Amino acid sequence: MTLMILGLLIFLGLHSVRIFADDWRTAMRARLGENGWKGLYSLLSLAGFGLLLWGYGLARQQPVVVWSPPVFMRHIAAPLMVLSFILLVAAYVPRNGIKARLHHPMTLAVKVWALAHLLANGTLHDIILFGSFLVWSVLLFRSARKRDAAAGTVYPPGKGVATAVTVVAGFAVSVLFAHWLHRMLIGVSPF
């Protein structure tokens, strides 16, 4: 579990710099240059993510059960995951109404993903992993909305076709992931 926590600290710590140390981030980008900053940030993020995955895999071998979620929690988690995938796709489809309205759909996707997994899993390593991502995404979303307000950021209005494409693609990816990719990549079938 120590490796997973270390990976979380590195990965989420790096991804929290804009929340807690935006001035430092700006100074480092100026000092290292845009490519230098992105390179260092990427290497450290990958190292943190690798430790997180390795530690999570080790923790799964000797799980500490904190609570046993009732089966109906999976039925609550499933539609939340569909919503999470739609929000994730909304971050990438230009001019969709979801992004126009919510502004930071990827951060919201992480929030919904983490909540869904907290509802459906009761082991200590799952609670630490998904709870950490939930807290981080709440803080990041609030910080991003404050930055937008301070900068006067205006998002372009969404278009119906782009929004429909977003919803259909998000739903399709969620079905693909739930029925095939989750088992293949994570080793657990959600159903």
Structural account:
The chain is mainly α. The chain has 9 helices and no strands. It has 2 domains: about 60 residues; about 130 residues, no CATH class. The protein starts with a helix and ends in a 5-residue tail after the last helix.
How would you describe this structure in keywords?
globular; mainly alpha; NnrU_dom; 191 residues
Q: Which whole number gives the mean pLDDT?
A: 95
**DSSP summary: helix tally:** 9
Low-confidence runs of at least 5 consecutive residues: none
Through-space gap between termini: 26 Å
Tell me the number of strands. 0
* Beta-strand content: under 5%
Tell me the overall shape.
Answer: globular
- Element order: H for helix, E for strand: HHHHHHHHH
The main pleated sheet reads as: none
Radius of gyration: 18 Å
**Class per helix and strand makeup:** mainly alpha
Helix content: over 70%
